[in-house]
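Morning F.,

Quick status update on the modeling queue. The single chain you submitted on Monday has been processed. Sequence for confirmation:
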Amino acid sequence: MPVRWDNLRLDVDRKDDRVTIPLFEQGAVVRTFDTPEFRGMTFYEVQARSIINRVPDASYVPFRWSINPYRGCSHACDYCMVGDTPILMANGRTKPIADVRVGDQICGTVRRGTYRHYAKTMVLAHWSTIKQAYRIKLEDGTELVASADHRFLTNRGWKHVTGTEWGADTRPHLTTNNKLMGTGRFAPGPQEESDYRRGYLCGMVRGDGSIHWKKYTRMDGTSGLTATFRLALADLEALRRAREYLMGFEVDSREFLFQAASKTRRELHAISSSGRVKVAVVEDLIAWPPKSSVEWSKGFLAGIFDAEGSYSRGVLRFSNTALDILGEIASALDRLGFASRLEVTGKPNGQCTIRVLGGIREALRFFHTVDPAITRKRSIEGRAIKSNARLRVTSIEPLGIDLPMYDITTGTGDFIANGVVSHNCFARKTHTYLDLDYGEDFDTKVVVKVNAPELLRKELAAPKWKGEHIAMGTNVDTYQRAEGRYRLMRGILEALRDFANPFSILTKGTLILRDLDLLRECAEVTDVGTNFSVGSVDPELWRAVEPGTPAPTRRLDAVRKLNEAGIACGVLMAPIIPFLSDSDEAMEETVRAIAASGATHVMPIVLHLRKGGAREWWMRWLRQHRPDLVPEYRELYGDRAYAPKEFQQQIAERVHSLARRFRVGAAEGPRRARRIAAPAPEPEQLALPEPAQRAR
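Structure tokens below.
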């Protein structure tokens, strides 16, 4: 399988279990370990060419150098899109990338001849992190929020969101001369309320249903009427939607096999209902409304498409012989902004066809706008990616904030994000930065720089190295599970100690406690700092908003042990969540626990809600779990990303008051290390972790 590393191809040549990796001095040794903690993982042992990495000058972090002895697939788009970015599914519908799951069938592309064509593919992996966000605006109004490293398909090939023409970050990147490939932004779906349901039933029943009134004579000579309604379809999706909608109008029905399959015909199922009252309700539901609403028009088009419409060879059409139905189709299309053309077929029965113009772009807009039930009719598989959509890039702007970002791995190596072709990391099934809990079985690929300790000694000894601060754990957790086997941090810490080089470590892994002896030795000769983040010690709140991270008590226990050993370790009390973790009792409990851990300091940071990711995710979570707090948040935040300054100041004063009360940082153990805090995000750049995010 091809693997990638920083845009350079890893040509896997399995000779003597080695792979060729041009970026490194020698080929990688591929290993798997048949032990519970590493089952399903693949390790690529490589000889790195450098180990001290310079942080790009554009980065906001207050340090310039880092060390990453472990790297997963460092392909350019590890974490790419904000959670609300709609992804085109194989069934023609859309789903936010945050909600996509492994095994889902989605739409990707394959190249055949001159063009790429849409194709079904499977999601092989799904992961997330937090990264600096950029907004890309296109000429037709499409907006995309992605990381700087993400790539889109343009008229000039794959291009990153940002890059430079020279220097270390030289790479193809978007400019305002580029046009993205695809159909453009996806249309919002209909509101599935009464008018939409009435419209759907009108289109469906008029297209494929039947109503029969029959007069009968009683034994006493008087007459009466019986009524029956029946709808027979080959597609259960539409049949059961119609049945559900009828039930909502108190018309119950029974489902049965109407016609068995044959060599030339598909199996048909039907629903039926009888009785004058019920059938009269059905007739009322399918009557032409005196004045139809937009939602009724959407429902009608969805119903008549399921009943009599088709999409084949790139043409979306409706065929009927009834002039009133054809007129209503044309009127509804026009109302929703679709261009169409009436074609006379010349058939003896007078059948005419209404054809929707605009190609695949308008076909997709139709499917998303009206939402037909039958998925087989919505497929765009095999269609070439050709469109006249106005997708020229008009601007690329940094949002100045980190947001939760998501990426997926697919079988085709790409996916369709809000109507444009988006690259993903084909090199791996997943890359999750691991907690140390046993029993977790993640499918990962980890590149291990096995020569990191000796290479670090060489670079620290170089005359050009000036002994600057080095941050570890800011990109990949140096104490992830693999460190338990490879033990690279032992050699790295020994080198930093011998050269008295200052450093800091940011981690959530308790494996750091294994190296207490070396950390103490380092602290005797240079500045050493560590940090953990703990916003609350409420176990229920932790499970609700950070289920993939280590429990707060475990983090604080590690803080305590580090400080008891003389290793300065502080706590970011972040994020403090208004109305959930900011009560007097909750904050007192958290600061008391932080103080008990011996933390050298506590820094409070209030939750912020930037648009384009964080706000949308959090408000959705509130609506699902705490709808009573939605009005409170609207009042507190309004349209702002931050809580009012007075509110933030009050929180900070309360935390600082509690810190003084509980004497945070006051304890001085024997041989206390010189303190330097690990670099931390600035308050305006900290976002709430999304609930499914794995712990680093």
